[in-house]
Amino acid sequence: DMNGIQTAGTYKLDLNITSPSGITVIDKSSSEISVTVDKTTSRHFPIEVKYRSTDVDASIYEIGDPILSVASIQISGPQKIVDSIEKMLVTLNMDVIKDTIDSKGCTVVPVDENEMPVSSPYIKLNQSTVDVLIPVYKEADVEIIPVYSDELNYTISYSDFSPKIVTVKGKVEAVNSIDCI
What we know:
The structure is a single chain. By secondary structure, the chain is mainly β. The chain contains 2 helices and 13 strands. It has helices at residues 79-83, 172-176; strands at 9-14, 32-37, 40-56, 60-63, 67-68, 72-78, 87-97, 101-107, 109-111, 124-125, 129-134, 136-143, 165-171. The strands form 4 sheets. A 5-stranded mixed sheet has the order 9-7-3-6-10. It has a 3-stranded antiparallel sheet with strand order 4-12-13. The N and C termini lie far apart (81 Å). The relative contact order is 0.18.
């Protein structure tokens, strides 16, 4: 009987057993039960993405900031548990990073300040997965091939210009599509 409990806390209550007709309770292992009562609260938490890979392609010069399908996740539940959550964490495990990372339906895990998972059947997330896009940038040396207009009948050789090679940087897909400039 929890009548009279009005505030959060842990209470010891008498254990009373009522059995259906025809069943008799002979003994019980305990005469009281401990019940914890807490306020229900709701908060939004930021999402952080961590990625692990075994290797990064040598031509990659930068891995960009993650772009998420949502910026935060709302968690509802007992205040004590919700207050122990620091952020939401998505962990991506990859082999070799060689182009843009596009992961759909990544699991989001509530974690505490030490990045240890916080789990409880009493907390509810407004969504449990997110999509993650991480741009990856590449650099490559590209040959310059001049195209001359010979309207003035000048004699021009390919050795008359400098530089002959430039380094381009950009998204992997864009850099891979450049053969020459």
